[in-house]
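New to this. Help decode the following:
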Amino acid sequence: MVAFNAHERPAHNAAELPVTPPPRLIGRESELQQIYPPLRESRAVYLHGPDGVGKSAVAAMLASAFAKQPGGSLWLYVDEDTTLESLIVRVGRAYDVAEIALSENPLGMVGAVAALLQQHKPLVVLDGPLETSIAAKFVTRCADRVPVLLVERETQNGPWVTAAIGPLTPDAAVDLFKHEANIAKNAPNAADADLRALVKALGHLPFAICVAARTMLAGKMSPADFLNRVRQVAPSVNNDPARIALTLSFAALTNNPLQGVLLMMGAIPSGAGTSDLLGMISGAPTASINQAVQMLAGLRLVDRGMRGEQVYFRQHALTHKFCEERLQSSGRLDGLREKAREKLIEYAQANMDAGKAGRLASEMENFVKLAHHAQRIGDRDTNSKLVIALSQAGTFVNDQGFVYELVQIRGAGGSPFPAYQDSEPAMPSGLFASLTAAPAEKFAPEQLEAAARGDIDEDDDDGSDAPVAPAPLAAAPAPELDDEYLLEDDDDDNGDDSGPAPVVQSPEDFLSSMASSPPTIVEPRQSVLFDREDDLDDDLDEIEDSEPFVEEEPATVEGKIAMLRTQLGQARQDGDMARQVTLLRQLGHWEVEEGLLIEAIATYNQALAVYEQRDDQMGQLETLEILSALMEKTENAQASVLMAQRGISIAEAMDDEETRLQLLLTLGDARQQLGESVEAAKAYGQALQIARTTDDSTHEAIILQKLGTAQLDSGDPDHAIDSWEQALALFKAQERRADEGRVKGALGQAYGELQRWPEAINFHKSALYIARELGDKGEEAVQLSDLGYTCLQAEQLGEAMMHYRQALHLAFEYGNRADIVAALVDLARLMLRSPSHLKITEQLVADGLQLDPSDKDLRSLKERIAGEILVAQSKGVQFKPVAGTARQFAAQGYRKFAGV
């Protein structure tokens, strides 16, 4: 197993959480009683409430309790830019599973993540404004029967139990204020009237109460004096509780470098960072920054934790918004954001050495946030620099499991094609293959350190302490900051979600006090680790006809799946194996219909196990046929081979030639995926014999087409040509024009292997004609690219340039970034042969580097072109003028040569 340097890992004690859990919550007993039971039953809970109400504190309390359980707690911060792919990758990284963390297609690892979470059963906390549809997909597809706690502001319906959290009761609010202000709980209550007025003005909201109480404590004010301050400020901020508290806290820092530190963090898109990064941005020594931000943590304005060996600070969301508004109103926000941007890039560039991987890993959240922010304002240069810095950091991206994050940053750089599609992608083919990432290699293990915490003071939980002297905030040496981070005081602002509060009971006691019975043990779901999703052919349709055990048919596929899963659980409790297998077949069918191929594999595996228990050979054969096809479609070739071979043996014993043919086809396809072309040809050959024996000309043509591919891949172009010519005759007779075109293109490749260029060109041209006749842009692009290469080999340079130019146009119109870059490289390499076209070639490469600054071919071409231009100038070559962008150049060529 690999060992990533991940800071997001399952916590097995409270100190390892990325938040500081309160040792006890004041006034939240009823909320805990509502939330804990469904989590204990491995269900999802959607905790919602207004900003500053203390949702994160409740979540931290629950997480600290679950951390003592075997599965621990996995806390993931999320936001509006978080995708399902990101969550999948982060879970893989948290458990050191390279197949998930480094997957080229994270959506294809849904089943693997589901199996992983089922195995470990942590409490998963998703803290932040995650898009509802993504949250629902994660809960149903990745974390089914796993406790999940979503912490959000607005209530949303979904596959979860909703739980609202509101302001504290007046008594609980007063108790919290006393605790934060170090006022003894049993002290004379002469000031209680002022305290009640204070907490009422603060809306009984924990965040506002904590910030205000700490401000009063640091300023050595009495409740009466502080209440007067609150009443003076309230009208200017529309009586907003968080703004009142933050305005007073901010005003107390006027002319204090701590104010500059707070504003500096407000200029960072995430409002967070390590002390090293904050030191670089502020220009202050790291030790001074560390001490200053620790003071801000004591004032409840930031949270403090650890990321590896780095101290990490995060502003509350309300504090971050407050700082942004302060900077905006003073006209300083854009300038300070620009400085933060420059320093973040500088930080990435300064930590590219192998020994500094931990520093880069700690700031990856900031790099991704910065990339998304740059994308929103149309800033491509920032993302280009980030991509270059991270790509040049040795093997950092691969070794630390940040392939997906790099693709996100690259994709935010202004490309017209997204790095990952919003829905599960189909299998790639031809010119339009998916953007790929580096393969997994070896990884060095590194132990994650426990998260550290710090407060202004520490109290016992009995409330009997005498008043404590204010913490020495002003006594500590303050960091020297750049003057631009200091503002004159004015009134307007905002605040965040907090809720640190006193001590009621320990996390260890919490579980036993909340539950009188042990947690429900849910049977783990079987799963196989597979990665790609695509539509399956029609071999599953027969299952749809079996009668479901539902009284009322749900209207949607998702509803049918949910209903079948519920009924399956009941059938398991009843021990009804016949009903189980019927429901499993139906469930697998609808999962395939919905594109949930990984889940379908797990379902059919369960059905196979039932058939094996019942010694049902026919059921096993049907299920093995489906499983082998699903595994081949999801590119799990080795597993597909094993399933197909088992099925072939059963089919031979049962003399079922039709099923044996299908299994042989699947076996051949799987062998091809594994690069075992000779073995694939053997499987196709056996299938061909069955098709001819049964006079099945439809399958015969398909098998011949596949057989030709295997023969060409195994270095036998002559036999490939023979197979394809037979397939071509059958496809023509069957009037299957698209297949006819594809076979002609394949024949062009075979003749190219034999260096018989005229025949190769003619077949490719014929295939191109058919693709255009049918309007198949993907196949047209493939044939144009192949024609360009073939003409180049035949030294028909003008023809080659014409075809490459058209292929580039189609890549711009229909392909992704990788397609465009590949087409640009092909065309630029050809045009280098013409000195008069060097300036146009230079423009093509420059446009390509805008799309992918890290592409080695383009960077090499750029250097070579610069040298060629100098040579051409010395010879007096007249360069053809550059009349537009690469896209315009390609489009002009397509209109001219394709006749459109």
About this structure: The longest strand covers residues 302-307. Confidence is low (pLDDT under 50) at residues 414-551.
